[in-house]
């Protein structure tokens, strides 16, 4: 099972945002799991140009992904997707490790 899967719509949107911010050559997308939200854990996504000793750096669909060691425990098998419909727009995490999620999809429990 791959650590993380990035769908084509998500990869395209990440590339667009990196280009718009002028960070395409220097930054990657950091995926992080932190405490918080109504289900106990929540995802954080941010552009980052630092890779620490305990980080894993991946190239998925041409996107540089950075994951810290602790977050990797919760992100194994996650699919990062991007949706843009009449009802919602944004990045979605499809996490097979989540045992419960909140109604808004912003937090989870594992």
Question: What is the topology?
Answer:
Layout lengths: L3 E3 L1 H13 L7 E8 L5 E8 L6 E6 L2 E6 H7 L2 E7 L4 E6 L5 E2 L5 E3 L1
Parallel strand pairs: 1-6, 2-5
Antiparallel strand pairs: 2-3, 3-9, 4-5, 6-7, 8-9
Describe the structure.
With 110 residues, the protein is an alpha+beta fold. It has one domain: HesB-like domain (Hypothetical Protein Aq_1857, Chain: A, Sandwich). It is 18% helix and 45% strand. It contains 2 helices and 9 strands, in the order E-H-E-E-E-E-H-E-E-E-E. The protein has helices at 8-20, 69-75, and strands spanning 4-6, 28-35, 41-48, 55-60, 63-68, 78-84, 89-94, 100-101, 107-109. The strands form 2 sheets. The protein has a 6-stranded mixed sheet. Strands 1-6-7 form a 3-stranded mixed sheet. The longest helix has 13 residues, at 8-20. The radius of gyration is 14 Å and the shape is globular. The chain starts with a strand and ends with a strand.
């Amino acid at each position: 099972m791959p650590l993380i899967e990035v769908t084509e719509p998500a990869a395209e949107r990440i590339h667009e945002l990196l280009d718009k911010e002028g960070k395409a050559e220097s930054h990657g997308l950091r995926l992080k799991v932190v405490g918080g939200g109504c289900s106990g854990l929540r995802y954080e996504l941010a552009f980052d140009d630092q890779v620490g000793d305990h980080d894993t750096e991946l190239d998925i669909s041409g996107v540089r992904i950075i994951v810290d060691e602790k977050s990797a425990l919760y992100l194994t098998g996650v699919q990062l997707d991007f949706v843009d419909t009449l009802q919602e727009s944004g990045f979605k995490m499809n996490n097979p490790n989540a045992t419960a999620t909140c109604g808004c999809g912003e937090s989870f429990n594992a």
